[in-house]
Design goal:
By secondary structure, the chain is an alpha+beta fold. Helices cover 46% and strands 17% of the residues. Strands 15, 16, 17, 18, 19, 20, 21, 22 and 23 form a nine-stranded mixed sheet that branches. Strands 2, 3, 5, 6, 7, 8 and 11 form a seven-stranded antiparallel sheet that branches. The protein has a four-stranded antiparallel sheet with strand order 12-13-1-14. Helix 5 packs across helix 6, helix 8 (306-342) runs antiparallel to helix 10 and helix 9 (362-382) packs antiparallel against helix 10 (388-472). The chain is elongated and about 230 Å long.
């Protein structure tokens, strides 16, 4: 059951549509109010215009600080800086850039003149006066009005300083092209007349905002974009209330950006120049030190050139080796000759003349010795060895041999001396040759450093000249493709969009309110909400007539018009309207359920104002039309709602129950229109209604009366409020439970089902009252009442009108 109730409580679209149709006036009023607000906003909003400019960021491949090629590396760059379009977009929108624009154009001071419904911006050609406020800082704001009088004088009034009002007025005379200075409550004010004021301009409102506030405002109005990622064209657009001011902002913005770019580039060039000069001084000192080191080392090592010295040392070594070889040969031959001369066996042999020494008379001596020896040998052969002449020659030969030996010894001594000299020279040359690679290595390292520093030195000299040229011939980084331009129609306010939004809001606001009302509305809506009830369903009763709306009632009360009262008896013979057909269906179902002895029917509900009296009376009339004998008893001794339908007779059932009379028949009121329909009113309101209905006289009275009628209908008070209904139900054969749509909480339905299943009330059946048949059989809302159960105050306010005494308390729920 809980699941069914949760499903049934959900609001479907159809129910929401019906709820909106019933409240169509809400939509009309909401749309009218929203459209009115939109129109007021459009009229009072100052139009904004848009201006757009396009600039191209130039390729910056030549903007390099220190890039070069070293030893053929022409594409190498140490400080290559390529301009990024996205970085330039940030530069255009930078706070410092816009701050300079605001300062140059004095955008922190705004001028306007009041016209109908709004203010008109004054700028440039239509501004007759410029204002300077030298005493105010960038963080101060101010406001004042310049009033142009008929005599040509001006008056400054309504001063505000930092949002606070400052009293005082200042008067002066300002002509065209004049400059005047006035002392005011906010400090010195300088007025510069630019042109004769337009006769239509009677007042100028001057607003000075803080510098940072103006910068933030105009930064918010500036937008930057690029068409695609590969493009170098930036689109700048500004929205402003003045077309000339928007164009000036864009032009000044581009100019400030270019100036900042050139300034930054020149700053880089100056920094680069200082860096190059510093490096040149350092490298020049280093080069000087390297040159000194090379010179000192060569001087110490006595090598003007390592390669030449190495070649020379090798040549010297080769010469020494040749000389050593020649001297060795000569020494060998000298020793050989000496041994040959000293050998006795070789005395008669000729000396080898070709082995003689060089640079001495030894060879001549050997030649003479050989000639003398040959002569002696020939003589000895022809004569004999004992020949005196031979002996004389032998003596001569011995002398010559001694002389030759002495010469050879001298030669050997000389050669040994020369060989020693050559050996020492060879050792020195070898030492120099072995030291040459280390010398070459050291000089090569030093000379390499010298070459690198010399290359850097020349490179820096070249870059210094290039940097000076770049600094002297600096071009802007941008090229203006499209100057500031745009349509002359305002871009804001967008009238059609605002009106459309207002229309949508006018529809959505009441729709949302209705949706929330319907969503959180926990009342019974219609027959579908009673699906969880298994008790017999007799039928549903639609509204007979609607009560005027709250606005209509207030209007009637204001003009003194009384609220129209309706006849609560709506069932008429022969009528075929919806309400009559509903009661006919109800009558038919009731006859089907009350066959037999079920004559006494108690009519009750959970809520006051559910229409019990209305239902009881009209159901009785419907039965009487069918010639059924019907008695309607007003069992609500506290409220006497049904009795009010007939003027509240002074005698009734309370007289019988309080034992003021024993004649029941005297209490019965015959209907003037229907012969078979009778009534028993309450009579005077008793102070103890519960005790009276609990008395046996009430049960006896019902038993007596039902013998004379086909149906006895008892109009009972609501259950769970007083105990009267439960007591009366003991005398009833059947209980009709009225569920008022839009009044009974759905949380009460499980209790109603429990009452049916437990048999707490006899033969319980359900009637749904207050449905909205005019809207497709749906339901109505909040046609309820406050039902007071206390002595001395009573009354009944239903959907058909109000009936009761003058003392009752009226309240609508």
């Amino acid at each position: 059951m809980a699941q069914n109730q949760e499903q049934e409580s959900s609001l479907n679209i159809k129910d929401l549509v019906y709820a909106c149709l019933r409240r169509w006036k809400w939509f009309v009023l909401s749309v009218a109010i929203c459209l009115f607000i939109a129109v007021v906003y459009i009229v009072r909003f100052q139009p904004e215009y848009s201006r757009k400019a396009e600039v191209q960021i130039k390729e910056d491949n030549q903007r390099r600080s220190l890039s070069s090629s070293i030893e053929g590396m022409t594409d190498f760059s140490l400080f290559q800086s390529k301009s990024s379009v996205y970085d330039e977009i940030k530069a255009f929108g930078a706070r410092s850039t816009m701050q300079e624009v605001v300062r140059r154009l004095h955008l922190d001071i705004d001028y306007s003149t009041p016209i109908r419904f709004r203010e008109k911006v004054l700028y440039a050609n239509n501004l007759p006066v410029n204002v300077q406020l030298p005493d105010l800082t960038d963080t101060e704001s101010a406001y004042f009005e310049i009033n142009f009088k008929k005599d040509g004088n001006i008056e400054l009034a309504n001063f505000l300083h930092n949002g606070e009002k400052v009293s005082g007025k200042v008067n002066g005379v300002l002509n065209e092209n004049d400059t005047i200075s006035l002392e005011s409550p906010i400090g010195n004010i300088v007025l510069i007349g630019t042109r004769t004021p337009n006769p239509d301009i009677k007042q100028i409102n001057v607003r000075k905002s803080t510098l940072y506030g103006a910068v933030g405002r105009y930064r918010g109005e500036l937008s930057t974009a690029i068409s695609d990622k590969m493009s170098r064209v930036i689109t700048l657009s500004v929205k402003d209330r003045s077309i000339p001011r928007a164009e000036d902002i864009l032009n000044t913005l581009i100019g400030v950006y270019n100036e900042n770019w050139v300034k930054d580039k020149n700053q880089i060039a100056r920094s680069t120049s200082l860096f190059i000069n510093d490096r040149l001084d350092v490298i020049e000192d280093e080069l000087s030190n390297v040159d000194s080191d090379v010179s000192s080392y060569k001087s110490q090592q006595m090598i003007p050139d390592v390669a030449t010295a190495g070649t020379m040392y090798m040549q010297q070594s080769a010469q020494i080796r040749n000389q050593q070889q020649e001297l060795g040969n000569e020494l060998y031959m000298a020793k050989y000759i000496r041994n040959y001369l000293t050998n006795e066996e070789d005395k008669t042999k000729v000396l080898p003349a070709s082995l003689g020494g060089k640079g001495s008379g030894l060879e001549n001596q050997i030649k003479e010795y050989n000639e003398k020896l040959l002569y002696r040998n020939n003589l000895a052969n022809s004569t004999s060895a004992e020949n005196p002449l031979v002996k004389e020659i032998d003596q001569q030969l011995n002398g010559m041999r001694t002389a030759i030996v002495s010469s050879v010894d001298n030669q050997i001594t000389n050669l040994n001396s020369q060989m020693g000299t050559l050996n020492r020279a060879s050792a020195q040359t070898s030492a120099r040759i072995s030291a040459n690679p280390n010398q070459a290595k050291y000089l090569l390292s030093v000379e390499r450093k010298q070459a690198v520093k010399q290359a850097i030195y020349l490179f820096l000299l070249q870059k210094r000249e290039e940097n000076e040229l770049n600094q002297a011939f600096t071009a802007y980084n941008t090229r203006i493709i499209d100057t500031p331009s745009g349509a002359f129609a305002p871009v804001a306010p967008k009238k059609n969009m605002i009106l459309l939004v207002a229309l949508l809001l006018g529809i959505l606001i009441p729709l949302a309110i209705i949706y929330l009302i319907e969503t959180f509305y926990n009342k019974v809506r219609g027959k579908d909400d009673l699906k969880s009830i298994t008790a017999p369903f007799l039928g549903e009763i639609p509204f007979a007539f609607h009560r005027p709306s709250w606005g209509t009632r207030m209007w009637h009360k204001l003009i003194g018009k009384k609220e129209e009262e309706h006849d609560p008896i709506v069932v008429k013979p022969g009528s075929r309207n919806v309400i009559n057909e509903a009661f006919r269906v109800l009558r038919t179902n009731l006859e089907f359920m009350t066959s037999g002895d079920n004559k006494v029917i108690a009519i009750t509900s959970y809520n006051p104002g559910s229409g019990k009296s209305f239902t009881a009376v009209n159901l009785g009339v419907a039965l009487a039309i069918k010639d059924k004998k019907v008695l309607i008893v007003d069992g609500d001794l506290r409220h006497a709602s049904m009795s009010s339908f007939f003027g509240k007779p002074t005698t009734g059932i309370s007289n019988y129950l309080s034992k003021r009379t024993d004649d029941l028949q005297s209490l019965i009121i015959k209907s003037d229109k229907y012969k078979t329909l009778d009534y028993i009113p309450v009579g005077p309101i008793p102070p103890n209604p519960t005790e009276l209905v609990a008395d046996a006289r009430f049960a006896n009275a019902i038993d007596t009366l039902k013998k004379n009628y086909d149906y006895v209908l008892i109009d009972c008070p609501p259950v769970d409020i007083v105990a009267d209904t439960q007591i009366i139900d003991k005398s009833a054969d059947m209980t009709i439970f009225l569920v008022r749509a839009g009044l009974l909480d759905k949380d009460m339905l499980p209790e109603l089902e429990d009452n049916y299943k437990t048999g707490k009330y006899r033969n319980l059946a359900v009637i749904l009252n207050g449905t909205e048949m005019a809207s497709g059989g749906r339901y109505g809302y909040r046609y309820g009442y406050k039902y007071g159960y206390h002595y001395g105050h009573y009354g009944y306010y239903g959907h058909y009108g109000y009936y009761g005494s003058d003392k009752e308390e009226k309240a609508e729920s």
